[in-house]
Amino acid sequence: MNKDKIIFWASTILIFLFEGVMPALTSQTELAQEGIRHLGYPIYFGNALVIFKIIGVLILVIPQLPKRIKEWAYAGFLFDFLFASISHGAVDGINFQTFFPLIILAVLVVSYVYYHKTSTIKN
Fold this sequence. Notes:
Helices cover 83% and strands 0% of the residues. The protein is globular and about 45 Å long. The model has no long low-confidence stretch (mean pLDDT 94). The longest helix is centred in the middle third of the chain and has 26 residues, at 67-92. It has helices at residues 3-26, 30-38, 43-61, 67-92, 96-119. The chain has one domain (3-119). It is mainly alpha-helical. The protein has 5 helices and no strands. It starts with a helix and ends with a helix. Helix 1 packs across helix 5 and helix 4 (67-92) packs antiparallel against helix 5 (96-119).
């Protein structure tokens, strides 16, 4: 496995864990639901977001899916992270919670860049 593939899979697995596994396991906890309410969103929005996150990470990690579908998943996560950052900043002011989604966005950008580097290499 070459360096580009290792970087792609490492960054994509981090996104998978942060945006797929953790929300799936914690979305129904009182703490998660209070976080959604605190930001001013209804609980059903949080539930829908978790479903879309799980679908999105599955799209990213299943290699056989078409590139166009993967592009939509990357775009969806871009919006998710940007609006999470904006929501935290608007409600709580500038603090770590405002910047944390942008840190995860940086990992997503690495995954995206290396997805394109590895998808052009013929195996």
